[in-house]
Amino acid sequence: MSEPPFLEIRGLQAWYGESHVLHGVDIAMREGETITLLGRNGAGKTTTLRAIMGILRKREGTITLRGQDLIGLPLHRVAQAGLGYVPEERGIFASLTVEENLMLPPRVAPDGMTVEDIYRLFPNLHERRSSQGTKLSGGEQQMLAMARILRTGARILLLDEPTEGLAPVIIQRIGDVLTTLKQRGMTILLVEQNFRFARKVADRFYLMEDGRIVNSFAARDLDSHMGQLQDVLGV
Fold first, then answer.
1. How many C-beta atoms lie closer than 10 Å to residue 17's C-beta?
2. How many domains is the chain built from?
3. I need a surface site. Which of 18, 47, 121, 222 has the fewest CB within 10 A?
4. Within a domain: residue 148?
């Protein structure tokens, strides 16, 4: 990378109890870039997101955002620095309405999306704004989980398996939203099993096996790496 990375992870190691899961992960992201982590289940992709965010505290290495070291910061300070995490389980509060869920996280920067911006981006949420979380479809829950982070003003979106279990029409909608966010300058680190979806939105790919990055390449070089992807992912 010619310019200094916007977000840089170096030598990241992480543990669940005594189980050593990440073994020196290196990732460097430019501002406004979308990177996809590819790998089989258990490769360490979700653990990488959790370790970057600080949810997983037993970790070593360096994580810097605009040169600021994040590794020693508590979780709320990492969020205030501009990182937002959308977990695979989405974390929607079932007893709250869509709009109450949307307004729950505090803003971390003044330039987050307004509620009106979010409803234009996710018309389904506007239609369901008074519905409780228990009444939302899986796709609507995914939209809401993403929307909550966008309202906070976070500049880096850590997105874990956003298409898991969703209908093709909703997957297409999520893809359209990510394209719009890229156009607005959002930096996105995406974990995704759906390779066909990932190849439409990513600028670069990192391939993981057994808690390590085994390769990285630009989207334009994807075809030349299909043999390795076939071996690792079975795509």
1. 7
2. 1
3. 18
4. no
